[in-house]
Amino acid sequence: MNKKIAVIKGDCIGPEIVTEAMKVLDKVAEKFGHTFEYDEVLMGGASIDVYGVPLTDETIEHCKAADAVLMGSIGGDTTTSPWYKLPPEKRPEAGLLKIRKSLGLFANLRPSVLYPQLSGACPLREDISSKGFDMLIMRELTGGLYFGERKTEEVDGVLTAVDTLKYDENEIRRVAIKAFEVAMKRRKKVTSVDKANVLDSSRLWRKVVDEVAKDYPEVTLEHALVDSTAMQLVKDPAQFDVMLTENMFGDILSDEASMITGSIGMLASASMNETKFGLYEPSGGSAPDIAGQNKANPIATILSAAMMLRFSFDMQQEADAVEAAIVKALDDGLRTGDIMSEGCTMLSCSEMGDAIAERI
Ligand code: IPM
Ligand code: MG
Q1: Among 109, 111, 161, 345, which is disulfide-ready with 152 (CB 3.0 to 4.6 Å)?
Q2: Closest ligand 1 atom number to CA of residue 254
Q3: Which residues of the chain form beta strands (DSSP E)?
Q4: CA distance 24 to 234
Q5: Do the domains spanning 1-108+266-360 and 123-260 agree at the CATH topology level?
Q6: Where residue 119 falls among pLDDT bands split at 50, 70, 90?
Q7: Would you say 92 and 125 are in contact if contact means Cβ atoms under 8 Å apart?
Q8: CATH code for 1-108+266-360?
Q9: What's the burial of 104, exposed, middle or buried (CB within 10 Å: 0-12/13-18/19+)?
């Protein structure tokens, strides 16, 4: 097969981790007889430096013309980078939100798996980590607080800021359907997370999710409050299969879910619209502190590329091969600094990419 991939390397560690994912994709192409054509475009800080804006219409067009988008991470150090002297709508993150919205990527899938090889890097107590866990966070990505009306103004001489959390039933329904669909292919359990004891948007969320659940009688649905879920994630993560939640809660819970896997450098993600088209990126940030040092963990990006093979290209065998190569590298005791433990071999970012590519 011939596939066109728009590539946004991004900022800080972005180019380093994406280069490794491309290395692995090239190996997949060679092994399985495919051609991957890369169309490199700019977004985030890298785009600001060249075009003065974090995302151009041209970049959006390039992404739309591709079969999928592979992305690194965007943004820099918010206290020192000149990008953060710009007004909010011109900063790197504005580009990320705009591309999600422009491509209609409402469903963000973030799998969080504790590999047994990494249980030593898991910050949880051993009686908890030894049970392992394998969950998938389905985060709504184009609504809620991130896209509601916002403003800062002086009201009676007092500076006042407003952000709006708005959802309509259709936005909730389409992401809920995605969650139930994916649960059918997993352990058939959905935990829908909200704050229905306080928020109207959450009460509507619960109502719509209950309606959708009627079409999936095989799936067990439970509702949980976001604060309690944050607690349960560290107390008993093995209980979760698919966790469905709105944009902001999903942002916060997915960082927590990633840390208990050992490192945020292990968390992949896929952002999908109604079709097979998707944008694939690691869930972690751009890690300005280690940028350019060849130290970053490329595994989340490589896992994201595997999700691209699986979901956008229907290449199941190829995706399996990438995931197996990662497991093999971990089995062989290979680690980047963030997941390093005693007796293992510490590799740089590019060495880890080589090691995984070699094992395909
Ligand atoms: C993420 C990130 C983004 C988000 C930031 C960079 C805007 O934290 O993808 O989780 O909040 O969605
Ligand atoms: Mg986040």
Answers
A1: 161
A2: 10
A3: 2-10, 35-40, 68-73, 107-113, 134-140, 150-155, 158-163, 189-194, 220-225, 242-245, 270-272, 278-280, 334-335, 345-346
A4: 33
A5: yes
A6: confident
A7: no
A8: 3.40.718.10
A9: middle
Q: Is the CB of 247 under 6 A from ligand 1?
A: no
In 38-60, which positions are buried (b, 16+ CB within 10 angstroms) versus exposed (e)? beebbbbbbbbeeeebbbbeebb
- Ligand nearest to the Cα of 279, by number: 1
d(CA 304, CA 27): 16
Beta-carbon count within 10 A of 231 CB = 11
Q: Would you call 109 helix, strand, or coil by DSSP?
A: strand
- Burial classification of residue 194, based on how many CB atoms lie within 10 Å of its CB (0-12 exposed, 13-18 middle, 19 or more buried): buried
Domain covering 123-260, topology? Isopropylmalate Dehydrogenase (3.40.718)
SS3 159: strand
> Averaged over 319-334, what is the pLDDT?
97
The first and second tokens of residue 263, run together, are: 């490192």
The model carries a pTM of: 0.95
Atom of ligand 1 nearest to the CA of 93: 7
The pLDDT tens digits for 172-229 are 999 999 999 999 999 999 999 999 999 999 999 999 999 999 999 999 999 999 999 9
Q: Measuring CA to CA, which residue among 239, 7, 261 is closest to residue 111?
A: 261
Distance CA 34, CA 18 (A): 19
Q: Parse the chain into domains and list their residue ranges.
A: 1-108+266-360, 123-260
Residue 57 annotated as catalytic: no
Q: Which atom of ligand 1 is nearest to the CA of 74?
A: 6
**Is the pLDDT score of 313 beyond 90?**
yes
Q: What is the mean pLDDT of the chain?
A: 97
Distance from residue 197's CA to the centre of ligand 1 (Å): 26
The rounded Å distance from CA 73 to ligand 1 centre is: 9
β strands within 171-246, DSSP E: 189-194, 220-225, 242-245
Distance, in Å, from the CA atom of 81 to the CA atom of 132, rounded to the nearest integer, reads 39
Cβ–ligand 1 contact at 73 (below 6 Å): no
Is position 255 annotated as part of the catalytic site?
A: yes
